[in-house]
Amino acid sequence: MIDTVKIGIIGCGNLGKAIARGLLEQPGFLPGNLQVTRRNTEALRDLADLGVAVHTDNVQLAREVDVLILGVKPFNIDKIMRQIAPVLEADRQLLLSLATGITLEALYAHVPEQMAVYRVMPNIAADIQESVTCFCSRHQDPKQDALVRALMNGVGESIQIDEPLMEAATVLGACGIAYVLRFMRAMIQGGIQIGFDAKTAAKIVNQTVKGAAELMIQQDLHPEAAIDKVTTPKGCTIVGLNEMEHQGFSSALVRGVLASYKDIEKK
Fold first, then answer.
1. Torsion of CA 101, 102, 104, 110, to 10 degrees
2. Measuring CA to CA, which residue among 101, 134, 106 is closest to residue 120?
3. Could you tell me which of 2, 109, 111, 119 has the C-alpha nearest to residue 66?
4. Residue ranges of domains in the chain, CATH in brackets
5. 249-265 and 176-193 are packed helices; what angle lies between their axes, rounded to 10 degrees?
6. pLDDT tens digit sequence for 44-79
7. Which residues of the chain have pLDDT under 70?
8. Residue of 98, 154, 168, 156 lying closest to 132 (CA atoms)
9. What's the predicted TM-score (pTM) here?
10. Which residue stretches of 69-197 are H helix?
11. 136 appears as a binding residue in the annotation
12. I need a labelling partner for 20 at 20 to 30 A (CA). Which of 32, 203, 238, 252 fits?
């Protein structure tokens, strides 16, 4: 579905590049159908080398693409929207915003009501086509929804949600990558302390986390059900889990999620 769609990313930073690289991995997707902009185009040289149109002209990009992805920081949204709004074609284009906290209402302040506008929140695993992407829109057009879903499924898995949950989705899916990585770092540090070199500890931890995720996905398990398969009476696993809980492991994670959510809500 996305093979012939012209896609543009304005403000192609880390997340934008992850989406771009994920798209380029899709069978049949042509680099010539992708345009990206950034003030420092040197940072996008790798995309240019693959045949992607890399430049600084946001208006040109907005005029030429079918799907426009806004990858700019939230505080730059108004400025960029004022810049590109005059050349947007409401009956032809889709507008996708990656900006945290910028509502559909704020985006529609710049474009006609009939334009298809989406809030989209992937994560940096889009780079390897393993993102989870939550998206929402004000209009429920099946064809447009299907296009957005196909686009985001191209870089992982997409979930359509109601807009009031978008901030929560940002915390759980986008910030959540960092939470998992911090947990993995701690696991590696523990592995080093009990005798492994850093490289071997990292390899073990990486595969262990990957295996745990795949176990839950493929067998549709709740985490506790999977944990019950590992813990044995008087075994070392339950001793370690209980010590972690005594030290506030689960509670610290929950508090971290809530702290991130409160920070988004107050902005």
1. 170
2. 134
3. 2
4. 7-161 (3.40.50.720), 169-265 (1.10.3730.10)
5. 150
6. 999 999 999 999 999 999 999 999 999 999 999 999
7. 1
8. 156
9. 0.89
10. 77-84, 104-108, 142-153, 166-169, 176-193
11. no
12. 203
Six-digit token string for 7: 């896609």
3-state secondary structure of 195: coil
In the 8-state DSSP scheme, what is residue 111?
S
Distances (CA, A) of 233 to 116, 158, 228, 244: 56, 40, 10, 17
Q: Is 11 annotated as a binding residue?
A: yes
Contact between 69 and 9 (Cβ < 8 Å): yes
Taking only the tens place, the pLDDT of each residue in 5-23 is 999 999 999 889 989 998 9
Residue 234 identity (one-letter amino acid): K
Sign of the Cα pseudo-torsion (57, 62, 68, 70, in order): positive
Q: Is 13 annotated as a binding residue?
A: yes
Please count the residues of the chain.
267
3-state secondary structure of 84: helix
Two structure tokens written together for 204: 């073990």
Q: How far is the C-alpha of 139 from the C-alpha of 115, rounded, in Å?
A: 9
